[in-house]
Amino acid sequence: MSRRLLDVLNMGTQFLAQHHIEQARVDAEVLLSHVLGVERITLYTDHDRPLQSGECADYLALLSRRAERIPVQYLTEWADFFCYRFTVREGVFIPRRDTEVVLDAAMGILKEREEAVVVDLGTGCGNIAISLSLQFPSSDVYAVDASSLAISLARENGARLGASERLKFLEGDLFSPLPSLDSLDLIVSNPPYIERSCLESLPAEVKAEPLDTYYGGEDGLDLIRRIVAEGAQYLSSDGMIAMEVGYDQGERVLRLMEHHGYTHRRLIPDLGERGRVVTARRSPH
Q1: Which of 2, 28, 184, 210 is the right S-S partner for 13, CB 3.0 to 4.6 Å?
Q2: Quick one: pLDDT at residue 285?
Q3: 271 pLDDT tier (thresholds 50, 70, 90)
Q4: Residue 213: inside a domain, yes or no?
Q5: % helix / strand / coil in the chain, to the nearest 5?
Q6: How many domains is the chain partitioned into structurally?
Q7: One domain, residues 120 and 220
């Protein structure tokens, strides 16, 4: 027996709400539109459409996994970032809209430079590196991640989105897989920066992602310290860093950059007016 689309959507919303999913309606819409292969608006323009038993079963299976706090992006295997849609899978960090602030900062820097050399450290699914490559196809962009799964997925996204051949994917720890370079124009990164004291209170959806993609050590700054300290030897004389940090870490990171001789240090707020991105220029000395 078939059921009306809107009735199934309402059922899904109620089910998720009963399991205390914060955005129950949105998630119910996203999952049902995914099952049916349609845009979300179609759920309302075609609300009387009868759904077959197989479609209902597939939807219920996704709802059940969402009720277990599996992120929606892992269930649909996509996430929107900037003006592109990226494939995401379990085991790789999910892009967030907040990270578009660091992308905006990076694009602002690259607009002043032609044929720049850029590295994205901790590229994940490649959302930052690929976006930069597509926006600045004459630049050489290196996407680096320690995870072979992430690099494989980023390479897949780059090919699907038609990124420049000047985009290279490298597996390894931070700067270690880079070719012999000391003339980077830009280091961009969204490194793990959650501190130990915050781990227990994180939403279950975040905990479903790999720990090493968001946990930054005791004070959250383990990898940030390395990027700042090691970055200077790879940057050109006026090369810059643009890096996402925790909302309460900006001033500490700016002091760290000052300690390592970086100039033109800035803390850029996100849409919630919280300091989210630090940028700085390598000292010419």
Answers
A1: 28
A2: 57
A3: confident
A4: yes
A5: 40, 20, 40
A6: 2
A7: yes
Q: Are residues 47 and 105 in the same domain?
A: no
| 3-state secondary structure at position 85 | strand
Residue 273 gets the label, from left (phi > 0), alpha (psi -120 to 50) or beta, of left
The CATH number that applies at residue 12 is: 1.10.8.10
Condensed to tens digits (0 to 9), the pLDDT of residues 204-257 reads 999 999 999 999 999 999 999 999 999 988 999 889 999 999 989 999 999 999
Residue 120 within a domain: yes
Give the separation between CA 285 and CA 276, rounded to whole angstroms: 28
Domain holding 52, by residue range, is: 3-68
pLDDT value of position 1: 61
Runs of H (alpha helix) within the chain: 5-18, 24-36, 42-45, 53-67, 72-76, 100-110, 127-135, 148-161, 204-207, 222-231, 250-259
Whether 37 is covered by a domain: the verdict is yes
pLDDT at 180 over 90: no
Q: Are residues 143 and 10 in the same domain?
A: no
Taking residue 204's Cβ as centre, other Cβ atoms within 10 Å add up to 10
pLDDT digits (tens, 9 = 90+) for 105-132: 999 999 988 789 999 999 999 999 999 9
Same domain membership, residue 27 and residue 158: no
Does a structural domain hold residue 77? no
Burial of 273 from C-beta contacts in 10 A (0-12 / 13-18 / 19+): exposed
Half-sphere exposure of 110 (CA within 13 A, CB side): 28
